[in-house]
């Protein structure tokens, strides 16, 4: 039901409008009434009506002045309808300049107001839907942007997008906050537009590859006390919602998008170490700095295991996992460090699943149901069983996803080439990026486009070169580099074969036509 507020200095007019107009029939309800503009301004902030019906002649401040004041202080403002006992065109013209939606003369005609309310209701519903759709698209863009930063996909283009979308500058101070349930299958979910304690303009919600809820926070705008209070609110609300303890991990501070992946990694370190020793709570990365992981943690023991998971051969996965744990045992890596490294393994595998449009929860929920929390695996034997099963299940799931995505993959490859043809592209690199055999990808590419990968790539580059030759005064060598050819002679040769003339002849011919 939409809310309407009525403003008139005559009590009998207020009562008549409230009782004699069938507001419900038009989808409205009267939420407040006011006898003056001053009272109206106070009540508008409290009730946030969708429609303001106001008399022009009010004491102290006129109805038109009230409308102007509301537009300055309320965002988005309500729709407006003017009431007047004067059939005066100057009033109507002034009201129209204020972009009101209707101008009604007293006494109000029932049919006239019902017709006007119907039109305004349709406008409000349309604008609300458009605003929600715009916010939804904005939230998706924010999610994607932060997710790419979390995964280390930083670029100047991304930084420019963040500046426009979020107002983030290279020197903007940031902190990352991760919230996760200690036990059970409940998933922490932070609401859009409600960062549960953090001011809306300071916190941006995202979800990591493992399904954990995160916030990227502009920390320069928060005192240490305010940050802790906001984090405590997140922890309290989510614990009550899920019925299980929730841990909130807070990173150190960094600047700009370049720091996001490191800040996120810091929260994972806290998640991998601290949370298991407590029953929920708020934990800071800076508190761990005096007790950092042993140097072995950074050796990347699971690198070979990850490679074998991508290949998908169970025997080789098991062998790589056994060798990894043997090496960690020989180096006497403590169990906390081993658990934290397995947490990173989890994150990487979840990211691989998500990149192939899979659902990481399908694996992780099953693993947690069978093995419990990672923190409960307090010896190497239990941890090795967990890793073995995790890697085998992930490998099987990735194989399944590849089979299902094969038709879409070649389409995505072609789209990628169409966008990135100016870059240094190799079929082998694309095959690795899209998790395919290079020879098979070449066959699919020819089948789909009717040309080999190299021919298709060269044609895209030559078409771009033709456009530059027509429209710019760049040198031939510069154009070759801009469209993706590292060798000018090779570019000229391919251009001749495709177009039938050299780039310089093509350029001169086009210039002569322009003259």
UniProtKB/TrEMBL annotation:
Location(s) in or outside the cell: Cytoplasm
Name of the protein this chain belongs to: Response regulator
Keywords on record: Cytoplasm, DNA-binding, Phosphoprotein, Transcription, Transcription regulation, Two-component regulatory system
Annotated HTH araC/xylS-type domain residues: 411-509
Pfam families given in the database record: HTH_18, Response_reg
Domain Response regulatory positions: 3-121
Source organism superkingdom: Bacteria
Residues modified as 4-aspartylphosphate: 55
Gene3D superfamilies reported in the protein's UniProt record: 3.40.50.2300, Homeodomain-like
Naturally occurring in which organism (per UniProt): Paenibacillus rhizoplanae
Main location: cytoplasm
């Amino acid at each position: 039901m939409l809310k309407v507020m009525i403003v008139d200095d005559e009590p009998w007019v207020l009562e008549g409008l409230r009782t004699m107009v069938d507001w419900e029939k038009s989808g409205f309800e009267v939420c407040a009434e006011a006898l003056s503009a001053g009272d109206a301004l106070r009540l508008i902030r409290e009730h946030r009506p969708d429609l303001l019906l106001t008399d022009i002649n009010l004491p102290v401040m006129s109805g038109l002045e009230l409308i102007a004041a509301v537009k300055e202080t309320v965002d988005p403002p309500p729709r407006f309808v003017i009431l007047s006992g004067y059939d005066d065109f100057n009033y109507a013209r002034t009201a129209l300049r204020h972009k009101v939606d209707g101008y009604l003369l007293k006494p109000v005609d029932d049919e006239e107001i019902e017709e006007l309310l119907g039109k305004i209701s349709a406008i409000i519903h349309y604008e609300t839907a458009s605003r929600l759709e715009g916010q939804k698209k904005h939230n998706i863009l924010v999610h994607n942007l932060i997710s790419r930063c979390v995964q280390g996909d930083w670029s100047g283009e991304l930084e420019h997008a963040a500046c426009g979308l979020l107002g983030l500058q290279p020197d903007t101070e940031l902190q990352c906050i991760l919230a996760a349930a200690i036990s059970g299958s409940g998933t922490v979910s932070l609401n859009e537009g409600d960062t549960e304690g953090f001011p809306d303009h300071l916190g941006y919600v995202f979800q990591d590859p493992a399904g954990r809820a995160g916030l990227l926070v502009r920390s320069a705008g928060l005192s240490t006390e305010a940050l802790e209070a906001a984090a405590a609110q997140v922890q309290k609300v989510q614990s009550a919602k899920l019925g299980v303890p929730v841990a909130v991990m807070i990173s150190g501070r960094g600047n700009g998008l370049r720091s996001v992946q490191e800040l996120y990694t810091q929260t994972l370190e806290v998640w991998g170490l601290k949370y298991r020793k407590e029953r929920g709570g708020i934990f800071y990365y800076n508190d761990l700095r005096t007790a950092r992981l042993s140097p072995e943690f950074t050796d990347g023991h699971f690198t070979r295991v990850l490679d074998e998971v991508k290949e998908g051969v169970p025997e080789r996965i098991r062998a790589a996992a056994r060798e990894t744990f043997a090496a960690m045992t020989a180096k006497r890596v403590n169990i906390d460090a081993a658990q934290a490294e397995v947490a990173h393994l989890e994150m990487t595998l979840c990211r691989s699943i998500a990149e192939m449009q899979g659902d990481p929860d399908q694996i992780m929920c099953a693993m947690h149901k069978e093995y419990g929390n990672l923190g409960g695996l307090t010896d190497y034997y239990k941890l090795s069983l967990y890793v073995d099963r995790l890697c085998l299940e992930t490998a099987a799931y990735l194989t399944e996803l590849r089979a299902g995505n094969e038709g879409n993959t070649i389409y995505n490859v072609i789209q990628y080439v169409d966008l990135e043809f100016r870059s240094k592209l190799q079929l082998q690199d694309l095959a690795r990026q899209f998790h395919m055999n290079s020879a098979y990808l070449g066959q699919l590419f020819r089948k789909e486009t009717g040309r080999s990968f190299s021919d298709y790539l060269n044609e895209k580059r030559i078409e771009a070169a033709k456009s530059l030759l027509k429209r710019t005064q760049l040198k031939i060598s510069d154009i070759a580099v801009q469209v993706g050819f590292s060798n000018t002679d090779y570019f000229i040769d391919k251009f001749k074969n495709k177009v039938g003339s050299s780039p310089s002849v093509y350029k001169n011919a086009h210039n002569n036509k322009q003259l």
